[in-house]
């Protein structure tokens, strides 16, 4: 039987992690797990239920009644596919804010560990190499300049018909970087043994090829 391994991909918003991880998964025929989608699904529910991010008790109650899973690459929140609802700027910010609560991270990290322990996976997020799979065989920290990341995110949002300005997207990216890097619980940082890949001047294909060449199946 093929040995199970994990590829951990961390980095800030808009660095290209999910595009790269998805393509690597396809090439290597392993599963891709988008952990950001799990925080986003929870953020969506918090917004929909109008629960305040300042009300920790209410957040705990809501978390206890929340079920998040993946089926065929779709993110499922309480039995409903929500893949098409979680990429808005409001949900991005809600995901970033709720992900700062240690009790929320604890539940989602446990679920992620379970998803990646019995089959080979490439998982992307902020704490995969530092908290979810500290013993992952392959660890990458994917970055790009904040302007380049905002440019990519702005293009993506325009293509989806969102009404946004570049300045707002850049401001949001910087705000999320700040939230993600300064929170007490598993802040975004490069694991000591992760390899940093700056994608500012690289194509997606270059990054995918680079990673695939290193992975020994
Ligand atoms: O990767 P993303 O932009 O979809 O993630 C949305 C938010 O979720 C991000 O601002 C921080 C949080 N997140 C996290 O804290 N830990 C992860 N493993 C993945 C995402």
Structure report:
The strands form 2 sheets. The protein has a 5-stranded parallel beta sheet with strand order 2-6-1-7-8, with helices on both faces. The protein has a 3-stranded antiparallel beta sheet with strand order 3-4-5, with helices on one face. Helix 2 packs across helix 4, helix 4 (89-98) packs parallel to helix 8 and helix 7 (146-159) crosses helix 8 (166-182). The protein is built from 9 helices and 8 strands. The protein has helices spanning 17-28, 35-48, 56-64, 89-98, 102-117, 128-132, 146-159, 166-182, 204-214; strands at 6-10, 31-34, 68-71, 74-77, 80-81, 121-125, 138-143, 195-198.
The average pLDDT score comes to 95
The major pleated sheet works out as:
5 strands, parallel
Quaternary structure classification? single chain
Helical content class: 40-55%
By DSSP, the count of extended strands is 8
User: Which stretches of 5+ consecutive residues score pLDDT under 50?
Assistant: none
User: How would you write the strand order of the largest sheet?
Assistant: 2-6-1-7-8
Quote the beta fraction.
15-25%
What is the 3D form? globular
Per DSSP, the total helix count is 9
Q: N-to-C terminal Cα separation, in Å?
A: 11 Å
Hetero groups in this structure are:
2'-deoxycytidine-5'-monophosphate
Spell out the helices and strands N to C.
EHEHHEEEHHEHEHHEH
* Helix vs. strand class: alpha/beta
Radius of gyration: 17 Å
């Amino acid at each position: 039987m093929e040995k199970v391994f994990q590829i951990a991909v961390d980095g800030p918003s808009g660095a290209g992690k999910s595009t790269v991880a998805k393509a690597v998964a396809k090439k290597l025929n392993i599963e891709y797990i988008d952990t950001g989608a799990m925080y986003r699904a929870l953020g969506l529910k918090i917004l929909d239920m109008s629960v305040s991010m300042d009300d920790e008790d209410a957040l705990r109650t809501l978390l206890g009644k929340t079920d998040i899973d993946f089926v065929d690459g779709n993110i499922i929140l309480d039995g409903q596919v929500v893949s098409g609802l979680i990429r808005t700027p409001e949900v991005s910010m809600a995901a970033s804010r709720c992900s700062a609560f240690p009790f929320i991270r604890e539940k989602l990290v446990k679920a992620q560990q379970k998803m990646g322990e019995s089959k080979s996976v490439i998982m992307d997020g902020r704490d995969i190499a530092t908290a979810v799979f500290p013993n992952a065989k392959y660890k990458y920290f994917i970055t790009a300049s904040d302007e380049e990341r905002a440019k990519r995110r702005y293009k993506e949002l325009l293509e989806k018909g969102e009404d946004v300005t570049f300045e707002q997207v850049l401001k949001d990216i910087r705000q999320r970087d700040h939230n993600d890097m300064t929170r007490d619980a598993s802040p975004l940082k490069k694991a000591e043994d992760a390899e940093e890949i700056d994608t500012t001047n690289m194509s997606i294909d270059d990054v995918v090829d680079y990673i695939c060449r290193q992975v020994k199946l």
